[in-house]
Specification:
Radius of gyration: 61 Å
Strand order of the largest sheet: 6-7-21-8-17-11-12
Number of helices: 56
Structural class: alpha+beta
Number of strands: 26
């Protein structure tokens, strides 16, 4: 021990220390503990350091804390350290962090009230817990109920579930859910109404037994024990309720903030109802008994509504309206009695005022006299041995007597209601066993404890004793089972406390003795207690400050009881005279309450008194004869006797315990008060269970679990093949003290703390291994880093050295280059210097030489210039002389010209004065100005030319001077003329000046005009630009409008596509929902059939009359089928009713009523569906009638036409016969002698053939007529079918348009049509509008003034609609043309097939038959053509006759040729026959073809032609029908048929029989065959419905039979894939569409049966294979839970693995493939199976905390991948099965992803889209680390997830529905097998069938 302490109490170890607020607080050691230390150095969780002082005497160390990996365990006994703080912390973590309200504590289920509705009580949860062992699932009330139910069925022993706890802890709810579980899993749905009745009793019992307290708004103020009875098949048959501890004092007194029983407030709230007017009620505040608590209203509760619920429950339980009113009268009377005011008459007497209205109301309501009741309320009768006295009562005593009477009446009423509830729950069926549910108070202690608390705690002492003994017994059984030596465990035995209370001279005896004393009092009784027990019993104590109280040390705590009121409450006195008055009442119900009290089922004693917490209702001793004696019996004695009876009942059963804990006193959801929780844990015995477990070996491991968990502590040499020996060797090394463990047969038992010790060793080993791994990895990383650095250094050195070498080489190169550069630079500098000097010398020489040249040039130039100057001077002098001469001459000329000009001027002035002249001048002034301007320009031009010429002439002046001199004389004459004209020039100049002024004015005006024109041009250009801008805007708007139109059209297209897609999806969803609803109705119908059959079996069994078997009601919609089935079932029902008539009278009528109600509902639903079908049929019939009327009109004309054609056909046939006769005569007349002469064989053969042809022609004529009539009838049928299939065709067209691509193409076609010539006119209108817009003013706001754009848009829309209509009309026309072409093509194909078929048949026939057949065919064909030609054109008909005659002649010639060929072949065959004569006929037949059969020349052999004769039909006699059904269905073994014969053979045989019945037109035979087939299949399924091969076989055959009915129905939709031969096998007389629906329903039922069968096979494998089995070994270690399974739990029958599931799936798949199941149906089955696997796995994962870990997530994902691989191998990946596993895959991913940050939360929310919020939160709450290195999910992270998923719209359901079945469909799958090729094996014993 010291070694362990030194090992455990070390630094960083965590312990629990006491705390005043939190009860226990966690701390961590900061220093190792040593043996001599007086204190521990601790650090709290908040960082505070303290020194924890140890007791110097005991040296008791604080409790050690469990490892974190053990926190939150399902079972408290699985904790390594079992003590109070560990229990409290585990419960708190589960309740607050994981939101788990249930926890196991050994055999006890601890239930903490969450004060919140949780989704963990649905039917899916019940189904999940059903059949599971108690330790396999998370703790739950359903697990306890399942364990009780399982032990009852296995051990044949009654069970009890004891539910206890404080008020408000949830006892009633737990008991109610336990009863609901029993009713659900009992396996008898027909008896579920018992549970409904029990639940219906809850509103009644809550109304009369529940009240509001300070702790609970709906607190049960009584205890009850409900026995649920079961029959020998463990189905609920009834129930019985016993009540205890009714708190009657609440009727007359309530504490503050409390209420009386709910029923009183419900009545007051409904006082205004008409039926309650005579009760004289008002509000609750008006009555004393309902206003004392001053809290008459409960928030959120409508009392009036609750009363309606209560009354409805009364009605359900058989309490009629009159009894209800009577009950309410009694309750109202109690309220009025409480308001009766009693006044003092004097100090010793009291009086009631006369005519007290409340007493009057009381007397009227209960039917007693006012005088008697007022008398005995204030008086009492005293009896002595000789006399009787009437004594008045003081007011206080009278008031107490009034209250006692009220309580007594209420108790009687309570008992009466309980009695009637029990009567409603009891049935006449014998009870085989029962499960009792006890809902009773827990241990109570208050500030003031009185007689009520004493009785309750006494009862809890007895229950605790029974609990301790049961726990000790289980421990002992476990040790004995494992063969472990054990010693007596020391546990607290509360027998001394019980003896103190109930033994002789105990507290109850002394109390009864004191009650018998005349002057007994509470004080004297207290003194007797002190004197008797104070010194003799250590459990009895006396308070220091009181002489009227005592203390008892109970098992839970010390309780101080106040003696005041004990005697009065124990006596329970009621004034007998008051009782007599009530018994004399005229009110029948009140008399019934008080008569024969000893006969009541649960009578209770009464406790009077004015105050106190509780009053008790005790079951009395049945040995008492009269009520008076019962009243004399004390309450303590009654209570002790009833408690003894209860303990005897419990001891005779196997108990199961549920302890309800109230987490806080404020009703806060998921709020945990440690003080209140510890107080209740101590009181309810949970800690005692922990202590008993800790005293022994609480931790228990199997050898395999121990080996798997602690394999890390073993060395390789320690591992032996024997796991048990290996574990022993290892434990001996690890734990030296062998008392710390024991080895059992299958388990290892450990003392408390040893698992934690081993876990610490394991953690240290793993930590050391981790350190070693880290060391190695870090070494490897460091070495890797070093090598990398060394390599990097070497690389750096290499590159550095290279760099340095390159730098040196570069330096050397640079040095050499510099030297070279210097050399060349110096050379260049020297060369430059030389060249400079050379250039300078040359420059100097050049300058000097130039200077000398210039000097020489200057001298020469000066000489030349001097000569020139001389030349020019001399010329100047000559010119000066010339100029003087010239000027003189010019002057003379000017004078002469001036004189002449003056003369001319005078003349001009005279002319100018003339007006006409001025006008003439002005008239051409502008022209003249222009001419003058041109002249001036020309003159200027001439002047320039002249000046240039003058310059040129100056040079030639010298040469011309002589000539000029010669002309000088002439010039002088001219000078005179010039002078004369000079004057004229001056006048002209003046005029010119005037004209110039006018010209300037004209130019200014012109400029003004030009400016105006420029301005106008600019304005116009601006206006044009604006118009261009407006035009651009309009174009832009046009483009925008076009774009908008395109976008809108695209949006409309997309919208239409989306709408169609959504509509398609919605229609598919609606279709699936409707299909699912229909299939559910079929399932419900089948279930009702099974119920009906079961009831008939029970009736037959109960009357000991054997019946032949069950005939199940057929669920069909066919009128024939329904009629037949109904008649047969009705006859059988009448027989069964006659046999079981007497038994039926004794059965529970409620079951029959419920079944009738359900049947009525189904019938109503069926009738509504039938009415809807009839309405639609009526609509169809009306449409069909209209079509028939039109058809009859056309038919009349057609019949007339047909008669004419028949007449023509007859006349034509006569002509043909005549022609043939003439041809025969001509042949006879012209025949030559020899082989062709008359009488020769060939001629005879020809004549015989012609005669036969004539006879055949007659026959064919009749056949043609018959066939013609049949064709007409078929045409009518086809016409009706077309009218019926028109909606389907329309639906197909609509479905075709649902394709998005086709819709787009259609829309594009519409747009193309819009561009067609038909849309020119709208386009022109738009263009006109746009031109108007362009030509309008540039005001953009005026563009859409009159809504022109809207008109454009509307016009476009109208155009689009018009074009769409035109397109649709064209499409319809096109479709009709295509249909007609298809029809013609089909006719051609049929004709071609017919020709090919005839050709093939002819080739297989002998030559004679071939000729005959070809002749018949030609005659038929020619006749048909003749008929058609006659109908079409008479002229063509005559031509056709000639052609027919010619063909007849050709045929005869061909006949002769073939006859000759036949004779030759016969001769050859004779020769061959001699050679092979010895060979057998069979061999000959096998070696020759059908066309080469040997025939005798005179007697031909008729070879049977099987292919021609057999038409794929089987004929049977009517009396052989039962034999057919028996051999083919009832006694057929599927295994042999599936292996040896073709798939679906029974279906083919049945259909071939049905074909023959249709062929012979026997409707009765068709109906009986189909009905017998359906009923026989149902019968075989009921008989062997759990055999997978049988169900699969008949599912495949039923589907094949259904497909055959469709394939050969004659419906074109089902004949597309048929061959021509198969089309000939179609049914001709009956339309079996209704029967197809019946068989489809049957197939649905078989499919559901198959799924159920497969589910039953797979169910045991799923959890074990998908969750529990470790497919990947070593990934998930066993968590050290040490889970204690109940010793009585059923042992596992075997372990399934994932391979088991895969093998079973492969077996299913191969079997269905062998049976010929349709591939699409196999896909649906596989999808359903995978859904079941995923749903069951996920549901178990959500209910098992031990499975929610990272490693388990990896296992699940691996298992899912294996399932996907299986799908891939089978080619089923596209069947939708993988998608059904998506929730499971996401749950596995959720277990493995990181769960810390907000990013993780966002990733989880986006990843887990297939999981609901409840499922995600549940997985996160259940996530449990398997190793210490994993981390738990924080509460904050879970809240973050909840916040992010808050907006999801989803179902709040936690579990997946494992019973959900996808709606099944049966796609049409035609068979390529020809019916005529099917052979019937002899093993089927169907020799009575004849092939037709």
């Amino acid at each position: 021990m010291n070694r362990e302490l030194e090992f455990m109490f070390v630094q960083s170890a965590r312990v629990w220390i006491p705390d005043a607020e939190e009860v226990w607080k966690s701390a961590e050691l900061t220093k190792d503990y040593k043996n001599d230390d007086a204190s521990l150095h601790l650090m709290l969780e908040d960082g505070t350091t303290i020194d924890h002082k140890l007791d110097p005497k005991t040296k008791n160390l604080p409790y050690l804390r469990n490892p974190d990996i053990l926190v939150g365990e399902n079972d408290l006994t699985a904790l390594s350290y079992l003590h109070e703080p560990a229990v409290l912390h585990n419960l708190k973590v589960r309740f607050i962090d994981s939101k788990l309200i249930y926890t196991y504590c050994g055999i006890v289920l601890v239930a903490i009230n969450p004060y919140e509705t949780l989704p963990i009580y649905g039917t899916d949860i019940i189904n999940a817990y059903s059949g599971q062992n108690m330790g396999d699932m998370d703790p739950h009330i359903f697990a306890v109920a399942e364990e009780a139910y399982k032990q009852m069925a296995r051990d044949e022993r009654n069970q009890s579930i004891i539910v206890s706890g404080e008020s408000g802890a949830g006892k009633t709810v737990s008991a109610k859910y336990a009863m609901r579980y029993f009713a659900t899993v009992s396996g008898s749905a027909s008896e579920a109404n018992v549970e409904e009745k029990v639940l219906a009793s809850n509103p009644i019992m809550e109304a009369i037994g529940n009240a509001k307290t300070t702790r609970n708004d709906n607190s049960s103020r009584f205890g009850k024990y409900i026995e649920i009875g079961f029959d020998n098949r463990y189905r609920i048959i009834g129930a019985n309720m016993r009540t205890y501890l009714l708190e009657k004092s609440r009727v007359v007194f309530q504490a503050d903030e409390e209420r009386n029983y709910h029923i009183f407030y419900q009545l007051c709230a409904s006082a205004n109802q008409p039926e309650f007017k005579n009760l004289r009620l008002s509000t609750a505040n008006d009555f004393l008994y309902t206003r004392q608590g001053r809290s008459p209203v409960i928030e959120g509760v409508d009392d009036a509504k609750e009363l309606r619920t209560t009354r409805h429950a009364f009605t359900l339980l058989g309490i009629n309206e009159s009894y209800q009113i009577g009950l309410f009268q009694v309750l109202a009377a109690i309220l009025h009695l409480g308001n009766v005011e009693i006044k003092d008459r004097d100090s010793d007497s009291s009086i009631i005022a006369p005519n007290n209205r409340h007493l009057t109301a009381f007397c009227e309501l209960v039917g007693v006299t006012y005088q008697d009741m007022s008398q005995w309320l204030c008086h009492r009768k005293l009896k002595t041995a000789t006399e009787t006295y009437i004594k008045p009562l003081p007011r206080l005593q009278a008031t107490n007597a009034r209250d006692a009477l009220s309580k007594h009446i209420y108790a009687k009423l309570f008992n009466w209601i309980v009695e009637h509830v029990n009567k409603a729950l009891v049935t006449n069926v014998k009870q085989h066993s029962f499960i009792g549910v006890l809902d009773i108070y827990g241990f109570e202690t208050f500030e003031i404890n009185s007689f009520e608390q004493f009785c309750i705690n006494y009862a809890n002492e007895k229950l605790q004793q029974q609990f301790n003994m049961h726990v000790f017994k289980l421990e002992q059984e476990e040790y004995m089972k494992e063969q472990i030596p054990w010693t007596l465990i020391d546990f607290y035995d509360n027998q001394p406390c019980i003896n103190l209370i109930e033994a002789k001279m105990g507290i109850l005896d002394l109390l009864d003795e004191e009650c018998k004393m005349p002057k007994g009092s509470d004080d004297s009784w207290a003194q007797k207690l002190y004197n008797t027990h104070l010194k003799t019993c250590s459990l009895f104590e006396k308070p220091r400050m009181s002489n009227r109280a005592f203390i008892i040390q109970h098992f839970a705590d010390k309780v101080e009881y106040q003696c005041e009121g004990f005697l009065e409450k124990n006596k329970d006195t009621v004034n007998e005279e008051q009782i007599h008055v009530l018994k004399a009442s005229k009110f029948d119900l009140l008399v019934e309450l008080f008569q024969d009290e000893e006969k009541a089922t649960t009578p209770t004693g009464q406790v009077p008194g004015t105050g106190g917490r509780t009053r008790l209702s005790i079951k009395p001793d049945k040995g008492r004869d009269t009520s008076s004696k019962e009243h004399k019996k004390t309450v303590g004695c009654q209570f002790r006797n009833s408690l003894q009876m209860l303990m005897e009942t419990l001891n005779a059963t196997t108990p199961h315990y549920v302890r309800c804990i109230k987490p806080n006193d404020f009703k806060l959801a998921f709020s945990f008060d440690p003080k209140r929780a510890v107080q209740q844990l101590r009181a309810c015995g949970v800690l005692e269970t922990i202590r008993i477990s800790a005293a022994g070996f609480p931790s228990r491991w199997t050898y395999q679990e121990f080996f798997s968990r602690y394999r890390v502590l073993m060395k390789q040499k320690d591992v032996l093949p024997d796991k048990k020996l290996t574990c022993k060797n290892v434990l001996e090394k690890l734990v030296q003290d062998q008392d710390k463990y024991q080895f059992g047969k299958t388990k290892i038992f450990f003392r408390a703390g040893q698992v934690a010790y081993l876990e610490k060793l394991r953690a240290d080993k793993l930590r050391a291994a981790c350190i070693r791994i880290q060391k190695t990895i870090r070494c490897w990383l460091a070495r890797k880093k070093y090598l990398r650095q060394r390599s990097a250094a070497i690389t750096i050195q290499r590159f550095t050295r290279g760099h340095q070498a390159r730098c040196l080489a570069k330096f050397l190169r640079r040095t050499q280059a510099a030297t070279t550069i210097q050399k060349y630079q110096r050379m260049c500098a020297e060369r430059k210097r030389f060249r400079q000097k050379q250039a300078a010398a040359l420059a100097m020489q050049t300058i000097l030489r130039a200077y000398m040249a210039r000097q020489k040039y200057q001298a020469l130039l000066r000489e030349h210039k001097a000569v020139t100057i001389q030349k020019h001077v001399r010329g100047w002098l000559a010119r000066c002389w010339y100029k003087r001469c010239l000027e003189a001459i010019v002057y003379l000329q000017c004078c002469i010209r001036r004189m002449r000009a003056k003369r001319e001027l005078k003349k001009l002035k005279i002319e100018a004065r003339s007006v006409e002249h001025f006008k003439k001048l002005n008239k051409g002034m502008e022209n003249k100005i222009m001419q003058l301007q041109r002249k001036i320009d020309e003159q200027n031009k001439d002047n320039r030319v002249i000046s240039e010429r003058l310059v040129s002439l100056e040079s030639s002046y010298a040469t011309e001077s002589e000539r000029m001199r010669g002309e000088l004389g002439r010039l002088r004459g001219v000078e005179e003329d010039a002078k004369n004209k000079a004057n004229q020039v001056s006048s002209l100049l003046e005029e010119l000046e005037k004209l110039r002024k006018e010209l300037s004015v004209t130019q200014q005006e012109k400029k003004t005009i030009e400016d105006w024109a420029q301005k106008y041009r600019d304005e116009m250009e601006k206006m044009v630009s604006e118009l261009k801008d407006q035009n651009g805007l309009l174009k832009k708007e046009k483009d925008d409008l076009n774009r908008m139109i395109q976008e809108q059209s695209q949006q409309m297209t997309e919208k239409m596509t989306r709408a169609i897609a959504q509509e398609t999806q919605q229609l598919e969803t609606d279709l699936n929902e409707e299909r699912s609803r229909y299939q559910n109705l079929l399932t419900e119908h089948l279930r009702l059939e099974e119920k009906y059959d079961d009831l008939k079996e029970e009736l037959a069994h109960s009357t000991s009359v054997s019946k032949p078997g069950h005939r199940r009601t057929d669920s069909t919609h066919s009128s024939n089928e329904s009629e037949y089935t109904y008649n047969s079932e009705y006859a059988e029902l009448e027989d069964g009713s006659r046999v079981g008539e007497d038994v039926t009278r004794g059965m529970d009528t409620s079951l029959t009523l419920k079944l009738q109600k359900r049947v009525t509902e189904l019938e109503q639903e069926k009738q509504s569906l039938r009415n809807e079908l009839e309405n639609r049929e009526e609509q169809f019939q009306r449409a069909r009638a209209r079509d028939d009327a039109q058809f009859r009109k056309a038919r009349g004309a057609e019949l007339e036409y047909e008669s004419l054609k028949r007449q023509e056909l007859e006349s034509e046939n006569k002509k043909l016969r005549h022609d043939l006769a003439e041809m025969r005569q001509s042949l006879l007349g012209s025949a030559a002698a020899g082989a062709g002469a008359p009488g020769s064989p060939a001629y005879k053969v020809l004549l015989d053939q012609l005669n036969a042809s004539c006879e055949e022609l007659e026959v064919r004529k009749e056949e043609v007529l018959i066939l013609r009539s049949q064709l007409v009838s078929q045409k009518e049928a086809l016409h009706h079918k077309e009218t019926m299939t028109e909606p389907s065709v329309f639906a197909q067209d609509v479905n075709k348009l649902k394709d998005a691509d086709e819709l787009k193409q259609a829309y594009v076609g519409v747009k193309d049509t819009n561009r067609s010539p038909r849309s020119v006119r709208p386009a022109l209108e738009v263009s006109d509008l746009l031109s108007r817009l362009r030509s309008a003013a540039p005001d953009l706001h005026r563009l859409n003034e009159d809504g022109e754009l809207w008109l454009v848009n509307q016009g476009l829309k109208e155009t689009t609609r018009l074009l769409e209509q035109q397109l649709q009309a064209q499409r319809r026309t096109y479709d009709s043309e295509v249909e007609s072409l298809r029809g013609e093509l089909q006719n051609v194909k049929e004709e071609n097939n017919r020709q090919q078929q005839l050709l093939a048949q002819n080739l297989q026939l002998p030559p004679e038959a071939r000729i005959e057949a070809s002749l018949q065919h030609e005659i038929t064909r020619l006749t048909n053509e003749n008929l058609e030609l006659m109908a079409d054109d008479p002229t063509a008909s005559r031509e056709a006759r000639v052609i027919i005659l010619r063909r007849m002649v050709d045929l005869m010639e061909q006949l002769e040729k073939q006859d000759r060929t036949i004779r030759k072949l016969k001769k050859q065959l004779k020769v061959y026959s001699k050679r092979i004569g010895e060979m057998g006929a069979g061999q000959t037949e096998g070696q020759t073809s059908p066309g080469q059969m040997v025939e005798e020349p005179i007697h031909p052999v008729n070879i049977p032609r099987r292919e021609k004769d057999f038409q794929g039909m089987l004929e049977y006699k009517k009396e052989d029908e039962m034999k057919l059904v028996k051999n083919l269905i009832l006694e057929l073994k599927p295994r042999g048929v599936a292996v040896n014969l073709i798939p679906g053979l029974p279906a083919y045989i049945l259909f071939m029989c049905l074909r023959h019945a249709d062929y012979v037109n026997d409707d009765q035979k068709v109906r009986t065959l189909l009905t017998s087939t359906i009923n026989s299949i149902k019968k075989i399924l009921k008989k062997r419905g759990d055999d997978f091969e049988t169900v699969s076989f008949w599912l495949a055959n039923t589907c094949r039979f259904l497909h055959c009915l469709k394939q050969y129905s004659g419906d074109e939709a089902f004949m597309k894939h048929n061959t021509s031969r198969q089309n000939e096998h179609c049914l001709s007389n009956f339309d079996l569409a209704e029967y197809r629906q019946v068989i489809s329903d049957l197939a649905i039922q078989i499919y559901q049966q198959l799924v159920k069968c497969m589910e039953n096979i797979l169910q045991p494998m799923i959890v074990s294979g998908m969750l529990e089995h470790e497919t990947i070994q070593g990934v998930s270690g066993v968590k050290p839970t040490g889970l204690r399974k109940r010793t009585s739990s059923i042992a596992d029958e075997g372990t399934y693995t994932l391979d088991s599931i895969l093998r079973q799936l492969s077996a299913f798949h191969s079997t269905m493939c062998q049976h010929g199941t349709d591939p699409e149906l196999i896909k649906q089955v596989v999808k359903q199976l995978f859904y079941i696997i995923g749903a069951v796995t996920l549901n178990n994962l959500l209910l098992r905390k031990d499975m929610c870990s990272w490693s388990k997530g990896m296992q699940i994902r691996y298992n899912v991948s294996q399932l996907e691989e299986w799908l891939r191998d089978k080619g089923l990946m596209n069947c939708g099965a993988k998608e059904t596993l998506e929730p499971l895959i996401q749950a596995a991913q959720l277990l493995q992803v990181k769960k810390k940050t907000d990013e993780d939360a966002e990733a989880i929310c986006s990843m887990c889209h297939a999981l609901t919020t409840a499922q995600i939160v549940k997985v996160l709450n259940l996530y449990t680390p398997v190793n210490e290195f994993e981390e738990r999910v924080s509460v904050a992270f879970i809240r973050t997830i909840q916040t992010r998923l808050r907006d999801r719209c989803e179902s709040p359901q936690l579990l997946m529905d494992t019973k959900m079945i996808y709606p099944v469909t049966f796609p049409f799958n035609p068979s390529s097998l020809a019916l005529e090729t099917i052979q019937i094996p002899t093993s089927l014993n169907l020799s009575f069938l004849t092939r037709v």
